[in-house]
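Q: What residues go here?
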């Protein structure tokens, strides 16, 4: 890693301090909105919002469907911060930049991170419009050393060799399924394994078949680095993939995926995703956060 890519503890702290000087909200929960899912921020009450371009140290969103705003507010009595737009490796950001907000959230006192994304389905049982609760992930870039934790370890955030088993909180996954039943949308939901690939191109048929054989249920281009960094600094994580398309696995299939279609499914399912996230945040327990990374 080149030194220009490194971000010091002070850099994260400066951004956190700036945000705390601009808003009275002290969020317990952070939400990262995936492609087409930015409307999650609209449900927050008593909003304070900041364009990424106005936040010292923040990267900029370049992808259509990622507005580039950080929104603070209340949801069901819990203080939240929501990223309307995330950063992807394929935009040219370093992985440390991609995950920069997660460590800032930790310094703000956040204890639970919600990650959402748009993903293509490889599992036969997952259809466009379905919602997958992420049970686990395969971080393909991470497996070959493209990991935000590479480089000097910042012991104030977490250990050199963090465990990743159990990084998607089981209690929150169970509660989400219970809420889905109560909302009458359990038929749309199942748990599965998400895989991150680098993008920005969608999969070839041979790549799709490979991922399918490896046991991947849904594939996308984000999330895993954020979850790795969140787990490293002790955040509890809950993740949802909105299935926006079937990944083409047959040479006879003439379908092909495009980003506009991905955003459209996001819009169609926005209400259900919003309801689920709102109820889950309302019903989950929050521990007293001692903010031990500060
Ligand atoms: O930010 P997410 O992971 O939801 O975005 C997915 C992956 C690509 O960025 C884009 C492809 O349409 O959607
Ligand atoms: N890699 C990948 N990312 C996606 N995001 C939404 N759909 C897809 C897909 O089919 N493949």
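A:
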């Amino acid at each position: 890693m080149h030194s220009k890519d490194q971000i010091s503890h002070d850099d994260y702290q400066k951004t956190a301090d700036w945000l705390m000087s601009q808003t009275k909200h002290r969020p317990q929960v952070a939400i990262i909105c995936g492609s087409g899912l930015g409307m999650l921020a609209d449900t927050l009450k008593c909003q304070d919002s900041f364009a990424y371009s106005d936040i010292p140290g923040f990267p900029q969103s370049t992808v259509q469907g990622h507005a580039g705003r950080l929104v603070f507010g209340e949801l069901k009595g819990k203080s939240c911060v929501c990223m309307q737009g995330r950063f992807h490796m394929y935009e040219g950001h370093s992985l440390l930049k991609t995950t920069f907000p997660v460590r800032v959230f930790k310094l703000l006192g956040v204890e639970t991170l919600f990650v959402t994304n748009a993903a293509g389905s490889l599992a036969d049982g997952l259809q466009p419009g379905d919602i997958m609760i992420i049970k686990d992930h395969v971080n393909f870039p991470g497996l070959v050393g493209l990991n935000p934790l590479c480089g000097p370890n910042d012991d104030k955030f977490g250990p050199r060799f963090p465990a990743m088993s159990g990084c998607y909180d089981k209690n929150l996954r169970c509660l989400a399924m219970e809420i889905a039943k109560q909302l009458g949308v359990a038929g749309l939901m199942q748990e599965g394994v998400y895989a991150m690939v680098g993008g920005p191109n969608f999969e070839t048929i041979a790549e799709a078949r490979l991922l399918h054989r490896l046991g991947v249920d849904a594939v996308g281009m984000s999330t895993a680095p954020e979850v790795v960094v969140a787990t490293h600094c002790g955040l509890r994580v809950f993740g949802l993939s909105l299935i926006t398309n079937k990944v083409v696995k047959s040479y006879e299939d003439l379908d092909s995926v495009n980003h506009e279609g991905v955003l459209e499914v996001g819009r169609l399912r926005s209400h259900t995703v919003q309801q689920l996230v709102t109820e889950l945040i309302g019903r989950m327990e929050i521990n007293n956060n001692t903010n031990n990374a500060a």
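A: Context that may help when evaluating the design: The pocket of guanine (ligand 2) is lined by residues 118-120, 197, 199, 202-203, 219-221, 244-245, 247, 257, 262 (CB under 6 Å). The first helix runs from residue 9 to 22.
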